[in-house]
Known about the structure:
With 323 residues, this protein is an alpha/beta fold. The protein has twelve helices and eight strands. α6 (161-168) runs parallel beside α7 and α9 runs antiparallel to α10 (244-261). The longest helix has 18 residues, at 244-261.
Amino acid sequence: MHISAQNLRDRLRGSLIAAAATPMTAAGEVDLDLVSRYLAGLVADGAGALAVLAHTGRGPYLAPEVRAGVIERAVALGVPVLVGVGGHPATDGHPATDDSPVGDDGVERTAEEARAAAGLGAAGVLVFPSAGDRPALHDAVWRASGLPMIAFDLYTRPCPPEAMAEILAHPGVAGLKTALLSDAMGCQRAIALTRAAGRLAITGEDRMFGPSLLWGAEAALVGLAAASVEVTAAVLAAFRGSDLRAFEEASGRLDRLAQVTFTEPMEGYVRRMLWLAAAEGRIPDSHAHDPYGPPLPADERARVVRHRGRARPSGRAGARLTE
């Protein structure tokens, strides 16, 4: 394991990493000054690190100049920044989660995104899953950028165990984020393989958050923290302590919020989290749009916002599993 991957693993252990959204208009326009304020608010409310341009941040769809601006503003906040790379939409316009393999052009584009992230001061990259040779993609990213990598086991394209084992043996891989949403056995397997390889097991399980901590996850990188940072941080703080009832109550609040945000259509969660961010005053309504996600019912926003009040913790929580 390369020293840079070891350092990132140790730096992120115990952290709440916010999977930040990218606030934008219905036309997909991004205001970078607004992005700065939004990201700063996530950090102020308990995020110990940021993951930008990942699945929640719609990174695969954004132009290089917009990506660079988002990375610059995240790095300026002084916390570790992970940058999502890869996962690009196919040329036929299908979403980044389709089953077309990643060709040479896609590998080079992913590698170039990683190089750009390194030049802008990112701490590491989160590598989107692909339908091609996943270990080879990680190696190309490593050779291009020298940045330590977080592998990504995503519900849209779960990683076969043999490929996961090979990825986790790569010297540049610092950890793995699992975001399988409903596959408890897959989540448990991924956490076990990651820890056995000496890498950081990171939960991205918004719908299995408390259980994934009990299964051995050592950090969290979740879309729920794109808005409701305190709700997520409260679960981590309770898990760190010795009060089982506090952990149960904090997990219950998070679960109730996840039930209305991470639900079918699942890709609608990005828009739902932006609605929550607007309700919390983090962004204006004009930038609470996700032009890349599915349409949602007109009455759904009110229901999501209504649940926000029921989920808020009574006090400020810390954002680390360990001191």
